[in-house]
Design a protein that fits this description.
The protein has about 800 residues and is an alpha+beta fold. The chain contains 26 helices and 25 strands. It starts with a helix and ends with a helix.
Length: about 800
């Protein structure tokens, strides 16, 4: 009987072995080629950098930073081996002991379990197979593991694993995970942090330190214990690691930094038409002209200015309501609330908060990271109208915004008003900072490039510059008095007014621009003619088609973009030269091969577009604006003698501007609603200028204080200005104050002036509809600055 049983078992074993042998013989030749592993080309995202090497944004389905094995920290390698495959360097791809342990587990539980996979088997699965738990998949995985082991070295296999594995939060590979979870490079982490990362491959969601800190901690302790057991760390290192509190980077996973979002998207738009979806996988690197410190300063200044404005214009109520009904009897209120943050976005420092409890005197909220905040007393003054039972009241389940102002938390909201800030080097056209709106995630419309808005009084300098070319001087006297023109609404007259409703009488041209007197500017434009002005202002980079030959042009009734204003003001800042704005320095592939590079032009090799004497004199007037006039706050707060600029406010304050500069930096700020409506009793000086000052306060310390060199052909008059400063004239001009009758072609008062065009008084054109950005131009190896910056024109169009 025993003999029969023996031969039966032996026969079954031999038969089974034969079946396995046949399966191997049939399957092995059909296994995938190892070429994909030998020529590993990881999917790398498009990365956009500042000029000083800071990552501004990345775009790709898989966020990954490739790291060579030789540059991989040894402590991380040891943590991975401790967590995933302690016998990696001993087995041949399949750990028989591990399989036996897994088999015993399968028998015990009655279903397939994981636990026998080596690092090699995980590489096989990640590159060639699915994660489906079937016998066929496991069999193929084992065969592939043997094939991989015979094709690659152990270090090569481990390198593939370190760069390819998914670790949660859209992070692929350990280098990317280090940035995602801890915000630092891989070589800057601690032993405890390496243990956290090494614990992720087993179950990235379950052991995610952001959403499951308790389970992540337990897994971390397990990995540290294994590292100690195998001698990878000392007892002292272990004790220190166990004590370390893990602090992870929380918040919504984004493709870009909060401050660099708009410029990063511009770069993506530039590459996509040429490379298509390969942009997201081939690891292109775009190095922009943006300075990260100035970009952060622009981000902070614009948000501060808009939030300050919004805080004085009333709370709008909660954003939405979520259902706090527990999903199970065991769920706590906190657990229920934390599970509802998916799909609710943080907007920079405006954090989403879910209201848990409301009393007449307090509001208790929970943040995405699990922290609780309680608001009471004066903290509720702003929202007191919403503490009730109305449809828009703050109730349990309401989603509101909170932010930290200094050390104090306060209730806030996402502003409806928008803004823009662009800063550019006037000597080269290199864009140094660009904020296309308050928050890219909330509104990706790039107001710097695309928003066609009325510039108001900030357009006046170009009319004054044209007047200088027509024979006016800074001391030409013009009567600031009422004047009317035929052709107004309903066939009546158009009678422009000064903003303050007052008249100053006869004043100099310099004083007229310094104090932004509307009537002076209209009279000047009428004298030189709108047609001449349109032709002249095109020298500053504007298109003649942007303008209509009406006198309202004097008050900035035409529409321009903030970028156009930056280019135009740069002509005054650099002494008369038109520079082309550009934002891309160079583009490389993943291996650093140069694909395109901008060749900045040298204005010393260019011809000026306006008379350098004109630029110098206009600069002196615009410095007066920033010292004595509507922009006087700039000099008071910045204490710089080289600051110049002009405020701008349109009818009903639908748009407010400050366009200012030094010889080394032009900065333009604009604030308004996307659907134009009044900002209230606001001006460029009260809303746009403070934003500009905050930005320049960060930018100016890095720039020398210097004045434009006075060109030849200018004569001076000591004490000649209305403030007793030196006055400047073209050689051959009348020196000193003189009335405008000659230039105006009329009596000095200007009361009987008629428009140069019968339609000169047509009403200001309605705000143009916004346009979507179009596809930018293609990359070429021989790219000149003009080629690269077709994106500028295309985004505007």
């Amino acid at each position: 009987m025993f003999a029969k049983l023996f031969w039966l078992v032996l026969g079954l074993i031999l038969a089974g072995g034969g079946v396995v042998a046949v399966m191997i013989a049939v399957t092995y030749p059909k296994l995938p080629s190892m070429d994909e592993l030998h020529n590993y080309q990881p999917k790398l995202p498009l990365q956009v950098y500042s000029s000083d090497g800071v990552l501004l944004g990345q775009f790709g389905q898989e966020h990954r930073i490739y790291v060579d094995f030789d540059n991989t920290p040894k402590l991380l390698v040891n943590a991975i081996l401790s967590a995933e495959d302690e016998r990696f360097y001993e087995h041949g791809g399949v750990d028989i002991l591990g399989i036996i342990r897994a088999a015993l587990g399968n028998i015990t539980t009655g279903h397939l379990q994981s636990g026998a996979s080596t690092i090699t088997m995980q590489v096989a699965r990640n590159f060639f197979l699915t994660t489906q738990k079937t016998f066929t998949r496991k069999f193929n995985e084992i065969l592939l593991s043997y094939k991989i082991e015979h094709s690659l070295s152990k270090d090569q296999i481990l390198s593939l694993y370190i760069n390819q594995i998914y670790l949660g939060q859209r992070a692929y590979g350990f280098a990317e995970a280090a940035q995602t979870y801890f915000g630092r490079p891989l070589d800057k982490l601690t032993i405890a942090e390496y243990a956290v990362l090494a614990g992720l491959p087993k179950a990235p969601s379950a052991y995610n330190p952001v959403v499951n800190p308790k389970r992540s901690h337990d897994r971390e302790m397990y990995v540290l214990g294994r590292m100690l057991k195998h001698g990878y760390i000392t007892q002292e290192q272990y004790d220190e690691a166990v004590k370390q509190k893990i602090i992870v980077a929380r918040g919504t996973v984004k493709d870009f930094t909060d401050s660099g979002s708009y410029i990063a998207e511009m770069a993506r738009q530039y590459l996509y038409p040429t490379y298509g979806d390969a942009v997201y996988t081939q690891g292109f690197k775009v190095y922009t002209t943006v300075n990260s410190k100035l970009q952060q300063a622009a981000y902070a200044a614009l948000r501060k200015g808009i939030l300050n404005y919004d805080a004085t214009h009333g709370y709008q109520g909660p954003e939405q309501r979520v259902d706090l009904t527990p999903s199970s009897p065991d769920s706590t209120l906190d657990q229920t609330a934390l599970g509802l943050f998916d799909g609710i976005t943080d907007y920079g420092d405006l954090f989403a908060a879910i209201v848990l409890q409301v009393t007449p005197d307090s509001i208790d909220v929970i943040l995405r990271n699990g922290n609780h905040l309680t608001f009471s007393g004066k903290q509720l003054d702003w929202v007191h109208k919403y503490l009730g039972n109305g449809a828009k009241s703050i109730l349990p389940g309401s989603v509101i915004r909170v932010r930290q102002n200094n050390d104090q938390w306060q209730i806030s909201q996402l502003p409806q008003v928008q803004g823009a800030l662009v800063a550019m080097n006037p000597q080269s056209g290199a864009i140094q900072a660009l904020m296309g709106g308050f928050d890219f995630t909330a509104n990706s419309f790039n107001h710097v490039m695309q928003a066609k808005r009325q510039p108001g009084s900030s357009f006046k300098p170009f009319i004054y510059s044209a007047a200088l070319e027509k024979g006016f001087t800074t001391e030409t006297i013009i009567d600031d008095s009422q004047v009317c023109f035929p052709g107004g609404n309903d066939g009546g007259q158009w009678c422009p007014k000064n903003d303050d409703g007052k008249f100053l009488g006869p004043i100099s041209l310099r004083q007229g621009l310094t104090l932004s007197r509307n009537l002076i500017t209209v009279k000047i434009l009428n004298a030189i003619s709108p047609q001449y002005a349109i032709s002249y202002v095109s020298k500053f980079g504007f298109s003649e088609s942007q303008f209509q030959p009406y006198l309202t042009m004097a008050l900035g009734a035409n529409e321009v973009t903030p970028l156009q204003m930056a280019q135009a003001y740069a002509v005054f800042a650099n002494g008369g030269y038109l520079v082309q704005p550009y934002f891309i320095d160079k583009i490389t592939d993943a291996n650093g091969k140069l694909l395109a590079q901008t060749q900045p032009s040298n204005i010393a090799q260019q011809s000026p577009v306006i008379d350098p004497r004109n630029a110098f004199i206009m600069n002196s007037i615009l410095k007066d604006v920033a010292k004595y006039g509507t922009g006087a706050r700039a000099w008071r707060e910045l204490h710089r003698s080289d600051v110049a600029g002009k405020t701008g406010t349109t009818n009903d304050a639908k748009d407010v501007w400050f366009d200012g500069y030094t010889p080394d930096l032009v900065a333009i700020t604009w604030v308004g609603y996307d659907q134009p409506k009044s900002l209230g009793r606001q001006f460029g000086a009260t809303l746009a200028l403070p934003i500009w000052i905050d930005f320049m306060r960060s930018a100016l310390p890095t720039l020398p204080e210097r004045q434009l060199a006075m060109p030849s052909g200018i004569v001076t008059e000591d004490g000649g200005t209305w403030k007793g400063d030196t006055e400047y004239y073209y050689e051959g001009s009348i020196i000193g104050k003189h009335n405008a009758s000659g230039e105006l072609g009329e009596e000095e008062s200007g009361d009987n002036l008629s428009p140069q065009d019968s339609n000169a008084s047509d009403p200001i054109a309605a705000q143009a509809a916004k346009t979507d950005s179009s596809a930018p131009a293609a990359v070429d190896n021989s790219t000149s600055r003009g080629d690269i910056n077709d994106i500028i024109k295309n985004i505007q169009d």
